[in-house]
## 1
Amino acid sequence: MTAPQPKAVSFGAHDLLVVLVMNILWGLNVIAVKMAVTAISPLTAGFLRQLIVLVVCGSALRIVPGKMRLLTVLGILSGGIFYIFINLSLAISDNVGALAIAGQLGVPFSLLLAILVFRERIRLPRIAGIALSFAGVLLLVFDPAAARELPGIALTAIGSFIWAICSLIQRYLIGVPVLTIYAWIGFWGSITLGTLAWFVEPAAMRAIPDLPLHTLGWIAFSALGSTVIGQGSMSWLLQRHPVSIVTPLTLAAPVVTVFAASWYFGTPLTVLMLSGGAIAMLGVAIVTIRTARAGDTP
């Protein structure tokens, strides 16, 4: 089964503006999620985020013939399971900049999945890029400021793998309206996270009516800024341009996260951490640029 390819569209100023907004929203989103999971609980915060997404996109919720199995799998993975790992990683970590670097593993994971699932053949440069990506994250282990975040880094790595699966699934949803995709993500995410939170975090779920407005504001920023606008922008771009062109344009997001989180939370930026981040992002850049030259992945 081969994924349908988007129609060729030139990359213009409108697309660049969308990329800029997307990277800023994604870069600042980690701060919002960290504040939300600290104020409430990880699963409850994720449930409220997906509930807001469902409310905003609910009017676009409709049956899409031939795509419902993919939309259901994507909704459960992207709207539910992904946020279980990401929110838990942020809840147990202080240095969120280290998590942002680990989050870049989604790109090499995507290529590895393409190799396993679609039998894509790659040469030495992209193999080196994958190795650099993992080496950069591994370097964090030797940084005392980041090494204590190993449980959070591991959870983020698992979340990145889930993100990679979702990015491949979205390639089969070309032609499905972006709002419809995220309406289903909000629907299945609300059910998955809400059910789990009700059993694991009952006190937090019961406290939802008493949440202060500033806490709800952090959640709303994540839901509207990162999910609806940010991830919606990514889906929009993927339906206009090959994934190998779009993916490198997300490299600015972790840079925004690392420096914004360091400033907001006062966490240190060590030479070893910056070096690991630079090596990881170099690997990601090699993978994505070489993939663009080789032709779009399935």
## 2
Amino acid sequence: MPPPAQGATRFARVRARLEAFEPRPGWRAWTYEFLLFGFKQGWACLFGALLLTLLLGTHYFYPADAGLARYDFLVIGAVLIQVGMLVFRLESLEEAKVILAFHVVGTVMEVFKTAHGSWLYPEANLFRIGGVPLFSGFMYAAVGSYIARVWRIFGFRFPGYPPRWTSWLLAAAIYVNFFAHHWLPDIRLGLFAATALLFWRTRVCFTVWREERWMPLLLGWFLVALFIWLAENVGTFSRAWMYPGQEDGWELVSPAKLGAWYLLMIISFVLVEAVHGRGNRS
């Protein structure tokens, strides 16, 4: 791979050194590639991991009688994480723009969904819109941050990608259905079918180290949705938000939520594709 460009993130320089390492062929090389894959995935998850750490830390250690509400502390903490990642060049400005878009899209959905009782934020705070504390938008931004970063780190390309307008139309229909199903029939089964029809031949090709690997894009989306569902369980365990039925104590988030996160992945992917996708859909 070429050396990192001038002004690249700090990770790009670390990655270049790791990729230059030459283990012995055979199982050592395979093991090294696997570990390198894990390291790169962990780095791509940095924003979300720091945010989850903040949620758990405040759940266990934030004083109940503090003058600043826990949710407001989370807002300030999330902003500082974002600023720190830019200042220390752990994230590019282009990635920050994607995160901002996710923050806006997610906050709009949160305001609507909490107003209709889909979930709730039980604690009082100052920095909020309706029933939604402003830190909630950063949870969607964490998804955008991961996709934008992993896209660049692994050099994604997508053989068999359908016409761009079809993916935008599908993402728009998914987003509208998240709102409209409260009054109109829920068309998510049709959206799943449309997703499979459009992307069943699409592969995501990625390079961990020396060779390019691939998997079906539909499978890749499911794996990310599963990871987000696990992270959501951490969030509800920390009492950052609650679903109906969790008021009297934590319980596992319904696996049915995996479907919702899978559809959200389509929206997430299309938003990031608008930034990273040009020229990468061979």
## 3
Amino acid sequence: MTFFRSRLAAAWLVAAGATLAAPATMAQDLELSIIAPAGAGGGWDSAARALQEVMMSTGNARSVQVINVPGAGGTVGLAQFVQGAAGSPNQMLVGGITMVGAIITNKAPYDLTAVTPIARLTGDPLVIVVPASSPYQTMADLMEGIKGDVERTIWAGGSAGGADHMLSALVTQAAGQDPAKVNYVAYSGGGEALAAMLGGQVTAGISGYGEWQGQIESGDLRALAISYPEPIEGIEAQPLKAQGIDIELVNWRGIFAGPDLAEADKAALEQAIAQTVQSPEWKELLAARGWSDYYAPSDEFTAFIASESERVKSILTSIGLAE
């Protein structure tokens, strides 16, 4: 699966600006620590270690250390980062849409306005699947099933309030039912959710496409739709929007610096990240892992977070997980 939607012209403007600003710390001199606010092996950990690998192999940082700080949908790591990284030119944090939801549902003491957005990196499609034995052959069939009995339509996905849960609520609402009635079962891992689907315990499942790609290709699961706004090369399932359902939801990941960062240090970090995502090594890594390029530089990313936070709060309020 290969898909790149590049905004790298903007990245080079950032890089050029960083050069003109003569940052105190040049990109190649950076000695970074990146907090992945989750356990090893998850999406944020993978993103942090991908940056570690490519920044060092391309010379955009001298050294990169990844530190895992799991807990409460990323909000434990966020709090630790805000308290310990103020003004630091050498500390960064990975986060994404699930953290936005966790901040709201956990009433966390800090939100993403407390940190410095550096860049949005990747945006993965969520996929809606049913077991091969399911009577639902199409997304339209599933929508009819939801209309007929919303509470008997049982969804499997990741953590409550996360991107999977949000998508199930949006689909339920699009089917004309109250999203607060969505029957959603949160599983701690994709393997448990897969077992529930194959065992006939749930109606449909939602996860990142890569999580269940093998089962989709083997025919054990039937992919009905993806939540990405556009078709993706190598994925047969079409976007919800292309099927007449006005929904898009991207499981995005981004990179942040601490609060109160000097402009010269911010410019150096922006330059290092922009040059990293420009590199052939990063493109090869995206292709190998099935990740989609969703790059946005700092200013655009900051505006995106503000609008995304409002949207996520609205969705979670409709479910009953926020006020």
